[in-house]
Amino acid sequence: MSSRDTDWDGVRLHVVTGKGGTGKTTVAAALALALAADGRKVLLVEVEGRQGIAQIFDLPPLPYEERRIAVAPGGGDVHALAIDPEEAMLEYLEMFYGMRRAGRALSKMGIVDFATTIAPGFRDVLVTGKTTEAVRRKGKNGKRIYDAVVLDAPPTGRVARFLNVTNEVAGLARVGPIKNHADLVNGVVSSPETAVHFVTLLEEMPVQETLDGITELRRVGLPVGGVFINMVRGALLPQATLDAASAGRFDPADLALGLKAAGLTDGGSKATALADALAREVEEHARRTELEHQERASLDAAGRPRYELPLLADGVDLAGLYELAEAIRTQGAA
């Protein structure tokens, strides 16, 4: 297994969050592929019950067990786990009370679901507990089973509460197994072994939610990772043209002459109408590009490493995931 310097050396739990619609699960999957490259073993964990990992890797729905789902560049392995809170609770009962059989009886009676519904903090402890157990787990040789774990976490607005499990269970238990379990989870989540990454688009609402999320994590003392800007469009026009369009100095008449010189029109009213339509497109593109520059500046103010992932023209498929993974590695995030 080769070694290389990255921005997150020493981090073993990569939590990925983002506003809905930003491609959070896609980025988590691509990050897992990037981290697994060159012979590493990575676990990709899903907690929201959407089977997003299965969809993005074009697989049947994942059971509640760890299984290999992809081979990374250079021969590494990506394993996946879709956590089911009820199954996690049964494991918890077995681990701390030796009550797995009784737990199944409780499950049939609906008590397990009732417990996690009236105490959502307990549900989060179960889910994060399963994830952090995978981070800590060692084989018979004393080495960690996984080189890294990537957690496809809840959206930005809920991630601080989801991860801040010690406070979440404070009202449930001050001593005993639940409190000890939460402390074990918190020991991983709040340590330098963890980084919480944000996925955003270059749009006002997701950028503001990202900045608010970073502020909230810092407030509760959780480790802030990097910012992944997803679906970035490449430059379509020279900067001088964009500047002219933004300043209202883009002349459609020049565009009409250019179209005629290129043999695309023969002049006349149709050429003028086409030039006017194209000029409006150029002006709209210039305005959008200027807004994207402003959003980048806002993200820069957060002082976190920033990575840009391209908009995939053909949508997100397996080939696209590998393309995004390569972009992540090229920029030093994995």
From TrEMBL:
PANTHER family: ARSENICAL PUMP-DRIVING ATPASE ARSENITE-TRANSLOCATING ATPASE (PTHR10803), ATPASE RV3679-RELATED (PTHR10803:SF31). It comes from the Bacteria. It comes from Planobispora takensis. InterPro entries: ArsA/GET3_ATPase-like (IPR025723), ATPase_ArsA/GET3 (IPR016300), P-loop_NTPase (IPR027417). Pfam families: ArsA_ATPase. This is ATPase. Residues 13-170 form the ArsA/GET3 Anion-transporting ATPase-like domain. One of its GO terms (molecular function) is ATP binding.
